[in-house]
Specification:
Blueprint: E1 6-16, E2 23-39, E3 42-50, H1 61-67, E4 74-79, E5 82-97, E6 100-112, E7 126-127
Length: about 140
């Protein structure tokens, strides 16, 4: 079994306890994995959020540009944040876990090219179900670090 869950703590906010004015921090954990994306001789490693509710994989435009990916036709994509324009492309991917790597093959990805109102989706790297959930049995463990 491959343990894929990497816990990344993100500080959400600081709250003050009215009784003693002590600062309290609230943390949330997000399942992230390190992925190597490659196109010819160009490659880049980046953490990607594992999204069990996403049908597609998204990579930032800057990553697509670094890799020299040829962007295909425009597609209107929809997320919980709204509808936005993406471009289709393909990229070779490997899951990195310690010193081991696992081939994910040639993945269909979409690259957001416009800003979603109130969001900055262009900076997200999101790993959807295709090509990932088909290859691994995924377990989310909320109570472990």
């Amino acid at each position: 079994m491959i343990e894929l869950y990497q816990s990344t703590s993100l500080r959400l906010s600081s709250l003050f306890n009215s009784a003693n004015q002590e600062k309290k921090e609230i943390f949330t954990h997000r399942p992230r994995v390190e992925i190597r994306l490659s196109n010819g001789q160009q490659n880049i490693k980046l953490p990607m959020l594992v999204d069990s509710g996403a049908d597609i994989t998204l990579i930032p435009l800057e990553v697509a540009e670094i890799l020299g990916l040829e962007l295909g036709k425009e597609i209107r994509s929809t997320s919980a944040s709204g509808t936005f324009v993406t471009r289709e492309t393909k990229v070779k991917a490997q899951l990195l876990k310690g010193v081991k790597s696992y081939d994910l093959g040639l993945m269909d990805v979409r690259v957001p090219i416009d800003k979603i109102e109130g969001s900055n989706l262009q900076t997200y790297a999101l790993l959807g179900r295709s090509h990932f959930f088909m290859k691994f049995d995924i377990t989310f463990r909320e109570n472990t670090l």
